Amino acid sequence: MADIQELKKIASQVRRDIIREVYLCQSGHPGGALGNADLLVALYFEVMKHDPSFNMEAEGEDVFFLSNGHISPVWYSVLARSGYFPVEELKTFRAIDSRLQGHPTTHEGLPGVRVASGSLGQGVSVACGMALSKKMNGDDRTVFVLTGDGEHQEGQIWEAALFAPDKKLDNLVLIIDDNGQQIDGATKDVMYMGSFEDKYKAFGWDVQHMDGNNIEEVVTTLKKVQTKRNGQPTCIVMKTEMGMGVDFMMGSHHWHGKAPSKEQAETALNQLEETLGDFPAEGI
Amino acid sequence: MLSLDKLQSTGKKATRDGFGAGLKAAGDQHDNVVMLTADLRGSMKSEDFINTYPDRFIQCGISEANMMGVAAGLATAGKIPVTTTFANFSTGRVYDQIRQSIAYSDKNVKICASHAGLTLGEDGATHQILEDIGMMRMLPGMTVINPCDYNQTKAAVQAIADHHGPVYLRFGRPSWPIFIPEDTKFEIGKALHLSEGSDVTIFATGHLVWKAVEAARQLAEEGISVDLINIHTIKPLDEEAVIASAKKTGAVVTCEEHNKYGGLGSAIAECLAKHHPTRQEFVATDDTFGESGEAEELLEKYGLGTKDVVAAVKRVLGK
User: What is the Cα gyration radius of chain A?
Assistant: First the structure.
């Protein structure tokens, strides 16, 4: 079983990385990134079999796709901290000539990224393609894809929701970041979404729930579904708190896409223990 | 070397039949070629591939956006996915999916699109896309090919399966003369010189190549010598061949089953404006949508017939 304390320490450092990344370039999306730190740490440091030397085709490996690409700061931090590229490269986030583009892309050759994302609703389809390919090749590893709750307003998601059960992609795990927030406000105020559980069940998925900010529960749930092979794809409705870990960033959509001031960044960093050493950067 | 004498119709078949034959051959050659379709397997004339390789056929239903994403995922894992549906649903409907998940992500996906242009016929303008070459040509890294007959389409499919990178392959519905000799080599990005001439150059792509051949024969009888060049690959354009012919003749006509904006005519004009400014006439649709009708009737009505090619040549020569 995982050393949960160890994972929590990594997650704390990842949250520090996120604050520092968005502070340095004064842009980016800290809220959703902070909310998903526990999930990504659990995936990359405990659940997935993966190789940081990075092979695009990922034969024999578990694969993660980020469909809601705007939470890139958390993914970049976790990839760097797992050894995909140097941690100090995090200081180039969103800067000119960087491999760490605002939204993730393969275009600059950043190890760990397999497809561009940012224009919403596309990642589940891509994950379906990878999962299908693994089925065709007799590769029994699992494909994980993270999507936003607001992202489910994109029609393509529902095309993929039909496709995966039809193709019996039980090696596919779709995680919905159900933080109830999107750019224009609370998700319930922007567009009534109803029940993800009812919708996905009606489409033929196996639906699970987890608290995405309880890293022990995240690890347990992911490990349970990772090896499940019952003919149905899995959907995990994951409750998270946007901005988790930084008190003034929690509880609203305000920090969806906004960078902190120097004072705010310092306040945030004071709430997050430095556990693995910050990446070197001037002025912070 | 080809010449007008050698370009005789040996029968008729649709370019989409050429696609089906080429796909089967590509499938024989590469065991990682997989075919996807959005509820149009019958229209794509691919039963031979599907029956031979049922495990490599992926029915996506009427969900083109998802199909493009699934193709990107399959390509990530090392497959050579071939997406198939009508040209309209292969491009305009899924432009952003192609842009982000395929082109920007440099995925080895082959977007194979039938029923392009007016010659789709009776279904009318909702299905007759005349903007697809322009859209696909604008995407960085995208190869754009519009073969002209059964033999060339078959060869093109095999060539794109051998080529690494995203490709848009555009072909059509109607039964069409087969006139490119079967043993003609298909090289992506290399213009095919159909006939040597000295007075005027015709650059043609797709179904309109046959119209250009017929026009060149008529013009020859009137003493006008046509340098006839088939541009099957619109991107990357064979600039060397285009410039050389423009320098030789000093007058250019482009022929395509596409809007006058964004397609072959634009590609040639962009090239020549930079390297060798040359008078040019465009045989293309005149910034319009199509309508229902038979293929030949539509080509006639929208100015894409043999007589329109002849007239364009005379205009560009000031005759």
Answer: 18
